[in-house]
Specification:
Helix content: under 10%
Number of strands: 34
Radius of gyration: 21 Å
Shape: globular
Distance between the termini: 58 Å
Largest sheet: 5 strands, antiparallel
Strand content: 35-45%
Strand order of the largest sheet: 1-3-4-5-6
Low-confidence stretches: 1-52, 447-462
Length: about 450
Amino acid sequence: TIATMMKRLLCALATASFVLCGCGGTGGSGGPSGTPPMVLVPAHLTVPEVTDSGDDWVTYAHDQMRSGYQPQDTGITPSNVSTLQLNWTANVAGGVVSSPIVTGGSVFIAGLGGAVTAFGTNDGRIQWSTQLNREIRMTPAFSGGVLFVGTHTYPGVLAALDAKTGAIRWQATVPGSDRGEPLVAGGAVYEGMAGGDPPTCFQGGIYAYNIQTGAQLWSWFVDPFAGDGGSVWGPISFDGTDLIFGTGNTCKKILGTGDAVVRLSQSGVMAWADPTSDSRSDNDVGGGVLLSGNHAFFTSKNGLYYDADAVTGNIGSKMPLGGITGYGGIGNPTTDGSVIAVSAGYLSDPTVNPTAPGGKLVGLNAAGNQLWSIPTQQPVFAYVAFTKGIAFATLDNKIVALDPQSGRILWSYTASAYFYGGPVVVPSGVYAVDTAGDVYAFDLSNGAASGDSRSRIPRARP
């Protein structure tokens, strides 16, 4: 098939560029017609560290498979979620488009103003704030008492911060922009590099760093030729063995590694790259990849939702969610093992209708059948956070709790501004941060306000 020939060509190009690859799969869109039952991979493969606080949301979308699923007992149930109350609120100067992570009695937030700030989960008091002096658009990753976070600058800086004090342990320079969330596994930190779209055409890809020193271990490029562009915009996923992630387009050549999902070993060896080639424009995979069982679920800016085989790279199915081509989804599908929640992207051209282009959140079963959808004024960029029987979502300027099977809203809270990042649900409560930098902490027992009231809650500012 054409897809098979493309994969063989990719291997030849990669070998010529001193990157080895295993190309035994056939790839392409001729995957199996049926969809196997979806089974969540055991959490011990995906959670870098759980501290004695019991809170374990330590990376983007909870775990390295980007499932968004909290397996711990949080005490929040469908019958009592309506009693969630606001415990405290704080603010991060400069605004925020990342998501929180929570562990060890701290909520960690990275902001557009360049600061990474730790707030106490009990009262929202600032524990420390470290200024990197560069815009941050990514969610930090926590492992071994260290936070790893990169900056959205040219060049980018990947920093390792002590989670207790905020002290900088090391910094490494990444030639392009750090936008997608890092992966920590096997003694290394893996970071995607973006900025490869015209006219900049940086040579984007994946960089691996020593977790202790920050020394660069290796690099892999979307396009092996310098100045040809290619990007990794979203978080890197990990199935316990290999890295799986989406890529953006190259500038000069049409290569199968661009506008694709790619599987790399932990030493930078490419197993396969499967392009999202389609007649629609902008096949860039700008968001994250959900790994569940042997499936890789993701969306593309062409407006399609994909179900691929995570082992072989075969794209088994693709379907439109309603987003328009060129402005499709760049979020991260998540799942509770039964329902997959995914955003559709823009429903109208934002250059024509910038104030209300429209969006929607969609609930699907494993076979891709729609169970429900919720319209929004703005596109949904955030992941959905699942716990047993509940899905927490950030829609426009609201935090909502949904019934995963029906999409029925069980509880909601109106915030001060639009949400770009996703929520966190852990035993100590529910946490979210809006684009104005306001951080919200909810629980079942210690709230002083409920619903939309915020005036009586003290605010801490760094």
